[in-house]
Structures
1.
Amino acid sequence: MSPSKPVPPYIAGVQKTSITVGWLPNDEGTGLVDEYTLEYKEMFKQHQQPQDGWKTLSIQKWAPAEQLLHIYEKLPPNASYTFRVKARNKIGWGVFSEPSEIVTTEASHPDR
């Protein structure tokens, strides 16, 4: 049986040029899940509609919850993103989580 559907990723921190994304391990303690794929989608600012399709941000081996974090860096200020995650075991990949909340990097300082 493929891994269960993970809960949506959460936002652990937001800066002007970075977002820290975390997610909870699913099937924790069973030893069945061995890898996660984290994807992102950039959103338009006006209506929060997606600009493009989903893109892979990180592939990470299973780890305890406090280590399941990814820092997405070198982002433009005032840009919006959403994230999703899926898990893999010996049988194959599970389904993606629902998307996270939409998060926006901090705005830069105005020009003088």
Note: The CA atoms of residues 65 and 72 lie 18 Å apart.
2.
Amino acid sequence: MCYGVFGSKTIENWSGFFIRFHQSIGSPPGLVISIDAGKRIDSAVTQMFKNGLSIKRNEKSLNVGDLMDSIRQLCMEKMFLRRKIARKLEGKILPNVMKDLNTRSRGLKYMWRYSHKDGATHAEMLGQVEGVTRDLIYWRHTVDLLERTCTCRHWQVTGLSCTHTLCIITSTLGYNIEDYVNEYYSIAKFKKAYGKSVKPMADRKQWPQVDPGFKLWPPF
């Protein structure tokens, strides 16, 4: 959790806060920031986070129908752009995910030993990975490639191979990193997620009119 305390709601103060916030979390896909109509906060957010879906300080004054229609149009544009990207993707795992994993797999100076489960095949490998931190503290983790687990728990929590797992995969002939990434990060899932479109709608003047005598039941 991140807190900031300052004397006035200026762009400079908000920018300083979001600069540090951005340094902490980066710009993860799907990031949503609720700005709650704070003074000048929207300007600071849009300066630091370029990849978010935002509602602009003049759309907040719209009535609820127009506001929801504005959000629908933003979603329509986002879905369209993501489908364009999906058409160009090839392979099994999203390229930005593979780029990050390949980068993290380089130069790992770990020691590791392996064994097979009793009567198991070569794919059912157990690995013991060990190393020393910069503070000269010894550590050790156990990796199970079949169960897709590591005692550091990074693999189980994120679905992405931890460096301990990457060490074993890249050191073993015939093993591929993409085979040990959760399907959540697959190109197939990405295409399926953005396969449906948000359809355009007629002008609001042509929408069905609500009977003025209509009442909710039970009353609130």
Note: The chain has seven helices and four strands.
3.
Amino acid sequence: MPLNKLRLIVLALCLAPMAVPASAQDTEQLVRGRASYSPALTLALLKKIEAFCAGADKSAREPLAKAIAAWQQRHAGLLLENARVRDELIAEANAPTAPPGLKAELDRMLKVRVPEQVESDYRKLVPPDASKGWASKAFTCGAHAGTIDSGQYDLARFDPAVAAYLQKRMHQAGKGGAGGQ
């Protein structure tokens, strides 16, 4: 992969999904960058919400756990392909021909920025006062179960370009392709 394209992918890890690139090829590289972390980021966020709800009563805890399990089932293939994309990018950044500092940039994005984003999103979704009393916690957990069940956290809904990209790679891999890039 040309070095400038790999750098563009790493840049995509910093940019919001609405970034407007210069060309269609750049668009695919930015989508590939987001595809390296987006589904896993959402799963980490849902698991963090589930951990918060672990202390809720059974009537609030169980619907959330079921909603997250259903989300994982719906996204199982996307999560596997997400890991493949991430592994490819890491391998490219570790290659002897990669530009100096690229590995450090990618590591920072995946090990620092992505967890920071999970934490930031969590603080927005589960405010500190949500744990004040069982009723507040039950309401928060029930509300999240409902939004997960309704597809609000589904990749196809909040980042359709990444969902399509990962589906395309899965389809190509199923036909004996290289997984798409």
Note: The chain has one domain: 3-174.
